[in-house]
């Protein structure tokens, strides 16, 4: 059954249809990953992995932001995550993740892929949730995270050319080393405006 979220345009999967549910009464989107799925273009040359599937919309033209509060169900396995993503093709994509580290710590992690993935750990998350945001800023993209959805912390700014199919933006659950991962997204907001200050997130 197609998933429809009132605040967003039409949604579709980047790959095969995934396991998703949207509860209109709570406005919570739930994505459940299959075992062993991820997106990864290993910088060391290991086999690329694109078995995860994201629920996405066509990226709006011009400046915009897509944000959501993200939670991931316990218990958590290494590298499992809920994420906001950009997707064009296997060699051009990016994701901003609420991920579980090998040290057993939930944290914000970003990955930008231009043939190979540039993987960067960011802040530790001390609660069971974090707000994530992706923004188009002119010809560039910006990632931010937040504890409360009000004060935003800068994660990274980058340029990335799209493949032939253009950009899609949306939501992902991944479980690279686990049997499954259930991520929930709420307070979802799509805004058609830019950011005044990238460094303080306004």
Gyration radius, to the nearest Å?
15 Å
* Arithmetic mean of pLDDT: 95
Number of domains: 1
Structural class: mainly beta
Please provide the count of β strands.
Answer: 16
Shape: globular
Main sheet attributes: strand count, strand direction, barrel closure? 7 strands, antiparallel
Secondary structure tally, helices: 0
Helix content: under 10%
CATH topology: Jelly Rolls
Assigned CATH architecture = Sandwich
List the secondary-structure elements in sequence, H or E.
EEEEEEEEEEEEEEEE
Distance between the termini: 37 Å
CATH class call = Mainly Beta
The share of residues in extended strands comes to over 45%
Order of strands across the widest beta sheet?
Answer: 1-6-15-8-9-10-11
């Amino acid at each position: 059954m197609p998933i429809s979220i009132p605040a967003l345009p039409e949604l579709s999967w980047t790959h095969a249809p995934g396991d998703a549910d949207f509860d209109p009464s709570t406005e919570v989107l739930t994505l459940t990953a299959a075992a062993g799925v991820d997106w990864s273009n290993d910088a060391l040359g290991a086999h690329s992995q694109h078995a995860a599937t994201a629920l996405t919309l066509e990226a709006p033209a011009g400046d915009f932001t897509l944000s959501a509060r993200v939670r991931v169900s316990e218990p958590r396995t290494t590298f499992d995550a809920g994420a906001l993503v950009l997707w064009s093709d296997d060699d051009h994509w990016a994701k901003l993740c609420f991920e579980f580290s090998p040290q057993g710590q939930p944290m914000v992690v970003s990955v930008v892929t231009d043939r190979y993935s540039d993987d960067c750990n960011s802040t530790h998350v001390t609660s069971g949730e974090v707000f994530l945001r992706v923004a188009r800023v002119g010809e560039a993209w910006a990632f931010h995270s937040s504890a409360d959805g009000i004060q935003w912390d800068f994660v990274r700014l980058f340029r990335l050319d799209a493949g032939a199919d253009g950009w899609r933006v949306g939501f992902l659950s991944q479980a690279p080393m686990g049997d499954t991962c259930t991520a929930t997204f709420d307070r979802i907001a799509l805004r058609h405006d830019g950011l005044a200050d990238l460094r303080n997130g306004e």
